Amino acid sequence: xxxxxxxxxxxxxxxxxxxxxxxxxxxxxxxxxxxxxxxxxxxxxxxxxxxxxxxxxxxxxxxxxxxxxxxxxxxxxxxxxxxxxxxxxxxxxxxxxxxxxxxxxxxxxxxxxxxxxxxxxxxxxxxxxxxxxxxxxxxxxxxxxxxxxxxxxxxxxxxxxxxxxxxxxxxxxxxxxxxxxxxxxxxxxxxxxxxxxxxxxxxxxxxxxxxxxxxxxxxxxxxxxxxxxxxxxxxxxxxxxxxxxxxxxxxxxxxxxxxxxxxxxxxxxxxxxxxxxxxxxxxxxxxxxxxxx
Length: 293
Ligand SMILES: [Zn+2]
What we know:
44% of the residues lie in helices and 13% in strands. It is α/β, with parallel strands linked by helices.
C-alpha cells in the first residue's frame, strides 16, 4: 500500500515558529516498512484552477501573498512553502485516485481545510480536498462525497467550497470556541466545548456519523487531525491517545458499513510533546491499514 509524503521538501521557518514541520518526517519514518512511501507529485495547475478562484491563483503564482495575507496564513509565504503546498495537494489528489481504484488512499500531508476559494488562512494555501474533488469530477466521478473533518478546528474553507454542492456533504466536529472564531456553515457542524474528553467526544461522533450515513457517500475524505489530543497547543480538547484510536476505528467501521472508498489526509497536530503528535498521526494510518487495506 502506497502513501504520499512531502517530508523531503524543505521549508524555511522563522526560529521558534509553531508549525510542526518535524511531524511529516516523523510520521513517514514511523510508517516506513508498513507503507510504500512515495514523494507526492506536484498537483496539476489545471486541478487547482478547477477549484480555486483563478484571480487568487494567478496572484499566488505571479507575486505570492501580501504581508497581510501571510499573517492570515500564519506562515511566511516563500517559494519553498508554495512548492510544499503544491506537492501536498498533489498527494491528496493521488490518494483520491488510489481510493477510487483500491478502496483506500493515504496522504501523509494535506488537510488544509482553512483555504477558501479566493484566500489563504490558517496554514492553508490550497484546499487539497476541494481540489481533489474537482479533479475527480472532471474525470467523470459522480458519486456522493463526504468530507469528514475531525480536526479540532472547523473546516471553514471546505464548508464554503461545497456550500452550494448537493453532491458533497461536509461534516465538521470541532471546538466551538476555538479558531476560526467566525464559523462557516457545513452541512453538519458539531461544536464541542473546551476540554472535551474521550467519552463525550465519541458520543458526539457517533451521533454525527449516523446523520452522515444517511447521505450514503461513495467516497469519504477523512481529515484526521490529531490536535484533539490532550496537550495540544491549539486544540483545546482533551482526548487520550486511546480515544483518538477509538475515533479512527469508528470512522473506519463507518466507511466499511456504508461501503465507501476512503482517503485519509493528515490535518493538524501540535502537541507540546512532539512524540505524541507523531505517534497519534502514525496510529491513524496504521489503523487504516489494518482495518481497510
Ligand atoms: Zn486543526
